Amino acid sequence: MKIALFGAGSAQFGYGTLGDIFQSQVLAGAEIALMDINARAVEVVRSYTAEYIKKNNLPFTVTATTDRETALKGADFVIISIEVGDRFALWDMDWTLPQQYGIPQVYGENGGPGGVFHALRIIPPILAICEDAVRLCPEATLFCYSNPMTAITTTVHRKFPGIKFVGMCHEIASIPRYLPDILGTPLENIQYRAAGLNHFSVLLEASYKDSGKDAYPDILKKAPEFFSREPGYSEIWQYVLRTGESVHTEGAEQRFRDAEGGHPRPWSDRRLFKEILERFGLLPITVDSHLGEYISWAHNVSDHRGIKDFYQFYRNYLGGVKPDIDMSRLHERVVPVMEGMVTDSGYEETAVNIPNNGLISDLPGWVAVEVPARVRRTGLEGIGFSDYPRGFGALLRNYTGVYDLTAEAVLTGRKDLVLQALLVNPVVGKVRGLEELVDQVQSLQSPWLDYLK
After folding, report:
1. Residue 229: left (phi > 0), alpha (psi -120 to 50), or beta?
2. Contact, 426 vs 398, CB < 8 A?
3. How many structural domains are present in the chain?
4. Helix, strand or coil for residue 194?
5. What angle do CA 442, 445, 449 make, to 5 degrees?
6. Which residues of the chain have pLDDT under 70?
7. pTM confidence score
8. Same domain, yes or no, for 17 and 119?
9. Nearest-CA neighbor of 106 among 306, 375, 248, 249?
10. How far apart are CA 235 and CA 194, in angstroms?
11. What are the tens digits of pLDDT across the range 6-17?
12. Do residues 73 and 139 touch, judged by C-beta distance below 8 A?
């Protein structure tokens, strides 16, 4: 078996994913091909990993390359987590330049104008990987962790119909993290499903396994009190930074409460989240920074302090990641999915991003949706929702046109479609200055946007 990791020079992605793979008995014996355009970075990861394999007598081999074709040749699984250029410098532009032109976007990574610009940069190199994969390892399954995930996955499947390309995201992890505390029962006793678009998804079903009783009424009753006192990500991470604790230190949340007197800011990171919960009767799976990128009125209610705190922490955290293959915890869900495919287990994975094709009946078939799926040897069988909630479904539909136009702009190189993608975007409430904004972003983000004419 061969597993290719694209973007493996990143300490966070490379070491975390390797640690996950090394915990697997099903994947034992695999060749792991590390690929990155940064030769020095990927060699550092390879050298550290080879030493770790030898020291721990692990049944794996590791290679490193900067050549895309070498990494892909003969691969069974390909895991992609790449960025282009200076990640945070470009992200700052995506976020702040639209604000300079009067567009109130709360974040600039996946939705809004910033998400469009991010997609225009990152999709072409991912399409290049996919083009080579179709030729060199046509039966391989490709898993993508890069953002903006819905835009990437939608465009890849439009360009390469039938490709085994799946978007993977860890945001669903918030549900098993909170539900046991909200409901007062172990996670093993909770059956749940969520669906929507990536970073724009809600819990749809929840029940108690022991009784079969619907748990959603209890969630709606108990969640407001829980989240009104729950510290936000930004507060916990700011505490971690002040104290020097590991980000993943067990019990950090409780120690934060003890240190801060147990009084976090009300609905920290979750003020938009609160509106969705109360007005639509649905529990979102993520926080304001992500939800707020897709909703026209988000800027009016989001926790802007929490969003800024999180962004600053994220920059500091990624800048300080040190080599560490951590086998004490599972970082992402891709390894269980690969194991499920190898063994044809048929287990239900909680969230994957795949073409809709009727899974959420209210949305276009071509858009990538985030749904649970059965994991089979032949691939992932998405689980559908024919009665998706009308109100939240309408919010999702409001954004699908942006993905359509963004995909076409990438595939055709038409700059006029970029402008249209902004004009149909729910967070854009103006027209004057948009052409200048697109021109300025293209100029500042050369060479990645030079293909647009």
Report:
1. alpha
2. yes
3. 2
4. strand
5. 55
6. 238, 240-241, 244-263, 317-322
7. 0.95
8. yes
9. 306
10. 26
11. 999 987 888 989
12. no
